[in-house]
Amino acid sequence: MEQTIHNERRDFLKKVSLSGGGLLLGFTLFEDLMAGPVQGQFVEGLKHDFNSYLSIAPDGTVTIASPNPELGQNIKTSFAMIVAEELDADWNKVVVVQAPLDTNRFERQLTGGSGAVPHSWKRLRNAGAAARLMLVTAAASRWRVSPAECTASEGMVMHEATGKKAGYGELVMDAAKLPVPPEVKLKDHKSFKLIGKPIRNVENKNIVTGKGLFGLDFYREGMMYAVIQRPPAFGTQIKLVNDKAAKAMPGVTHVATFKNNVAVVGTSTWAVLKARKALDISYEPIPGTKPESSTDHDALFTSMMNRTDAKVNRKEGDVEAAFSKAAKVIKREFECPFIPHNPIEPMNFFADVRPDGVELVGPTQTPGSARKAVSDLLKIPENKITVDITRLGGGFGRRLKFDYVVEAAEVSSIIKKPVKLIWTREDDMGGGSYRPAVRYRFEAAIDAQGNLTGYKLRGVGINVGNSTRENNFPSGSIDNLLIDSVDHSSPITTGAWRAPVTNFLACAEQSFLDEVAEAMGKDPVQLRLELLQKARTAPAGPVRYDIDRMEHVIKAVAEKSQWGKKPGVAQGFSVYFSHASYVGQVCDVVMEAGKPVVKKITAVSDCGIVINSSGAQQQVMGGILDGFGHAMYGKLSFNNGEPEQKNFNAYRHVRMKGIPEVDASFVDNGKDPTGLGEPALPPTGGAVANAIYKATGKRIYKQPFIEQDPLKEAE
Amino acid sequence: MPVYTLNVNGKALKVDVAADTPLLWVLRDNLRLVGTKFGCGIGSCGACTIHLNGNATRACLTPVSSVGTSKVITIEGLSEKGDHPLQQAWDEVDVPQCGYCQAGQIMTAAAFLKKTPNPTVEQVETAMNGNLCRCAAYHRIREAVLVASKKTK
Predict the structure, then answer these.
(1) Alpha-carbon dihedral angle through residues A434, A598, B139, A634, given to the nearest 10 degrees
(2) pTM of the full structure
């Protein structure tokens, strides 16, 4: 079966002519085009001036522009694969380039929320299919045969009866003269040749040879280097700055104090790093603000748990009656600390603020928001500000914030020179926007017949907003339910961290459900299946997840992991729905020398159609190890507002030794693709904690696990 | 500032920098060899790993004044055509996610394989444990080192 897509606007495909010969066809992937004819400068000014996102050159080279920032989610490869699939392009002739920020032509030009592929899926296919149809039509017309008799494959149109064939490059001149097809047929997913295959990252060669792809690698003749001394503790401000010694250091050209920052600018990175150490700055608490310590947060969370004015996020039935009539009540609290993102490339950005405009270059997940913020700061209209997006050395949500972009622009505007601002690891780990510290309290009411009749969840956190995901499973499957939250406003800054909120909520919830199952005398898999059946047959309020898909991953991962059938292996179960995808995980733990050791994690993911099976594996394997590492080791603590861990010697990340094996497989259901950069992370902590419990009889209620019994003495 | 003549990737290169400047910043800022990455500045992440007389060395902790006539090899000089067995294996196994740490990973692995051409899995894990990959592409890094070790035979 083939799908037909109607092009809503005829200008979705545009012809491009180049004065120099070269480029002949251009297609925009996005509907909301600016009006007016497209002027092609694709080949000449590739970086700044191109106006099309798919082009075919006379030599058959297909160039595809990727608008979204690449931070390791492999979007640059995936986007191109989707276009090339419908185009039936020869993958060896596909070139992918990163597009600069252009809000006139691109929608959602950001990386976050695991949303790029779902958003662009149909748009990209549409572009490829339209181009293919025009090339086939051009060939058929040249050969005086019916287009229906022609086929296309690997960059070539063929007419079987006569044996005629022509490459796309030979046909673009003719194709460019044709009208844009008003509608195109998309392939059935079963006939995909490229989508679903393990296609290597298009940037591999550049990465393994050390090409300067990243923001920190950017260089402009005459640029200055800058570092900034920020207040070391949240909730403090500058009292006094003595910058005499720093200014006298060799290679230093400027020392500038602005807001609560002291920027040191000079001719090399080392010069400014050394000079920064020579700054003599004293700080004081911001009036009306109390710098916080992690030791205070324990009492704070306890008081927040007792608050009577919590924000109710979801309420079903009569939860108090269910608890008063319960034969058994289980009440447990779970807690996680702040953690930094720690992308391995620290924050940095290049800015050149000139009277005629601003040039920004660097790693950002949100180029549009960054430009807006710079525009607001400098009172320069956005159309005078360009943003080139470099490759990002990781993001994990940190580069959704654009504080460092604004800083770079401010420094450049002060010194009136192009500048590259660099953060050190200490700046990065101490510089805020952390995963918030959160505590959850779960309560379950079980009646005399052993039914789960009531469920309560309160989330309390620091600068987290709503710390619950109230419409996720098990909501919908329990008649009496109350989910509420309390937030505390703190000077410690927080932000989205890979799978925001769910990165710990899932761990807590899946651990709690394991305990509930045990109290009900049920297998954890069986409990979840029964709850889903209840949500299907007698839902309690709205059900905002797909019951069938969740049920499927539960059953599939139970089977794949040989759930309950591995002698000598303690297994823990977890399943979570986030970013529109479903991931079930089973963790295998064995006891070695009296200690639980995490051996393997089996995952089954339903993210709809898998675009690139190699990239998808990476996202799941990396997401699981990321979830594992942070559950085990991650902790950033504070003393009077100052982070106590400032570099990798004091902050532990997962490393190669001791990683569990990961078995990642995918559900093949032909559904439109959903997110995959984040969904594999949330279930991991719960699966690990549940397996450790199975092995040791000890439940873990707090991250990092390594500080809790039974792992504590293990280190 | 003193002038140093460094032997980098087989070429004699002159730089005029402060004696305590880490080789990392000399490579990046002065010689524009940006494949060697900055990650932590304290030798804890391995993103800046280079070869100093064939030994895997953290460029962030190596003052330029200590380099002398030692042979410095960076990722740019690991192979002429980017086809060192490790570079090939990294592509074949499709290792990189964000890719930032990978040059350091490859340099650590290259020095290791030279000394240990037939490593066990455990030896690979021990050798590579100092190199942080924040995307946690560890399974594939490990596999690629083993794949490369078979290529060199």
Answers:
(1) 10
(2) 0.94
